[in-house]
Amino acid sequence: MTSSFVSLKRAATLTVVLLAGTVSAAVAQLGMARPVGQRIVDGIIAKIDNQIVLRSDLENIMAQEMARAEGKPLPPDMQCRVLQSLALNKLLLAKAETDSVVVEDAQVKGELDRRMNYFAQQIGSEKKLEEYYNKPIKQLKDDLRPQVKEQLVQQKMQEQIAGKVTVTPREVRQYFNRIPKDSLPYYSTEVEVGQIIKFAKVNSAAKQAAQAKLNDLRARILAGESFETLAKQFSEDPGSGAQGGYLGFFKRKELVPEYEAAALRLEPGQLSPVVESQFGFHLIQLIERKGDQYSTRHILLKPGTGTTDVNEAAKDLTKLRTRILADSLTFAKAAKDNSDDKQTGASGGLLQNREDGSTYLPLDKLDPAIFFTIDTMKVGGITPPMPYRTDDGKDAMRIIWLKSNTPPHQANFKDDYQKLAQAALAEKKNKALDEWFEKNRGSVYIEVDPQYSGCKLLNSVN
Questions:
Q1: What Gene3D superfamilies does the record tag this protein with (predicted)?
Q2: What is the pLDDT of residues 212-240, one digit of tens each?
Q3: How many angstroms separate the CA atoms of 254 and 240, rounded?
Q4: What pLDDT, on a 0 to 100 scale, did the predictor assign at position 302?
Q5: How far, in Å, are 17, 159, 234, 354 from residue 363 at the CA level?
Q6: What Cα–Cα distance (Å) separates residue 184 from each residue in 166, 177, 341, 404, 435?
Q7: Inside any domain, residue 145
């Protein structure tokens, strides 16, 4: 069954889904083409009210689909399916504008930061990512910001339309019973894995050295040297350092609290004392206030590799592990209350399957570090604290818990209830979204380039 929900969700998340494996696959997910010598002529191929679909939108996604297919031919109607999904997304945006559905700038910034951290980690570093695109990180974020904002608005609209839809156990059973027995899926070995992460602490000597260096730079600026020149020379923020430390305009609550509080206490041109945040140590200069926005430049110093102390993190995790194994604390509660990884901590420490959102991970798709760790573990086992490096390069320690290990089998109601419930819920959300599209597709103006008229955009959502 091809549903509007499946098509819509896939198009809306094509640049969110993180492809494991090659660097080229990872940067392809950035949603931007790498600069080349020959410029491709762009153009509008569809209009839905005041929303437009560009030829480059279609070509970029088709290129991603071809990379995903790994040389296998795409279905003949793939281009129309992608264009249909793009049109459905634009319908969501058009109605979001009518209904005054917006997302906060802080949410957009957070999503941009998350993606850039991931892509930098995949390609090797922020510097390598900048070299690949020949642009600073700040420019890459600026290029991607409109696309990310659109995706977040689309997701918010989907949530408003179908977010409150639920399924009962009876509906899950009915869904399962409708599946022909010879069509039941076959699942390979799957595991549920949890983790609790504690970040290493920067040692006091490294902190003092960073603070002393920034105080020295502050004195040099006050004595007449150029802030911009010193930022280019010493700042360890690759995005702003090359721009003389310039960060541009931000609204309140868009930057980390410590930075914002220090910046807003300044007068234009004034320097802050050394400020510590989660990113390191900053020397800040306020440039200008404009309404509810302000612009700054900064010099960032990060205590380098080898200056962190993992001993305290290891001690904390050892204590938690002892309590969990003694049954005085559940792993889920320990993760929720103590893990420095807020994403997995919120789910009781369990890693999620990016394909379907479940906690069941195919064994052949596990991160090698986890695969070889759990390979000899028994269900319920918890590792001692182990060194770990986060996606954004932070030193940490973690313990890993093997919650379950399900052997290969054909789907059944008892063992696969969670998957079946998710599928039944998706089907019910499909219906809600289909009804919404049927109700609203006739309320918008649509115009399609004759070259793509055979795709019958928005004529049918089924």
A1: 3.10.50.40, Porin chaperone SurA, peptide-binding domain
A2: 999 999 999 999 999 999 999 999 887 78
A3: 16
A4: 85
A5: 19, 31, 45, 14
A6: 23, 10, 36, 22, 28
A7: yes
Q: Residue 296 is part of which domain span?
A: 204-301
Specify the higher pLDDT residue, 169 or 22. Answer: 169
Predicted model pTM: 0.59
| SS3 state at 88 | helix
Domain count along the chain? 3
Residue 40's pLDDT band, with cuts at 50, 70 and 90, is very low
77 Cβ neighbours under 8 A, 6+ residues apart: none
Considering only residues 305 and 320, tell me which one the structure prediction assigns the higher pLDDT: 320
Q: Which of 112, 106, 409 is nearest to 255 (CA)?
A: 106
Q: Is 26 helix (H, G, I), strand (E, B) or coil?
A: helix
- Do 149 and 40 share a structural domain? yes
Burial letters 105-133, b for 16+ CB under 10 A, else e: eeebbebbeebbebbbbbbeebeebbebb
CA torsion angle for 18, 22, 25, 28 (degrees, to 10)? 100
What are the two backbone dihedrals, phi and then psi, of residue 271, each rounded to the nearest 5 degrees? Answer: -100, 145
The residue among 272 and 30 whose pLDDT is bigger is 272
d(CA 239, CA 152) in angstroms, rounded, equals 24
- When pLDDT is cut at 50, 70 and 90, the band that residue 3 belongs to is very low
C-beta atoms surrounding 234 within 10 Å:
17
CATH number of the domain encompassing residue 365: 3.10.50.40
Q: With beta carbons less than 8 A apart as the criterion, state whether 446 and 52 touch.
A: no
CB 196 within 8 A of CB 349: yes
Task: Identify how many contiguous H helices and E strands the chain contains and give both numbers.
Answer: 17, 15
pLDDT given for residue 226 in this prediction: 96
**Structure-token match 């790994």, residue found:** 70
> How many whole angstroms separate alpha carbon 141 and alpha carbon 163?
29
Q: In this structure, what are the phi and psi dihedrals at residue 140, rounded to the nearest 5 degrees?
A: -60, -40
| Tokens, residue 260 | 């914002």
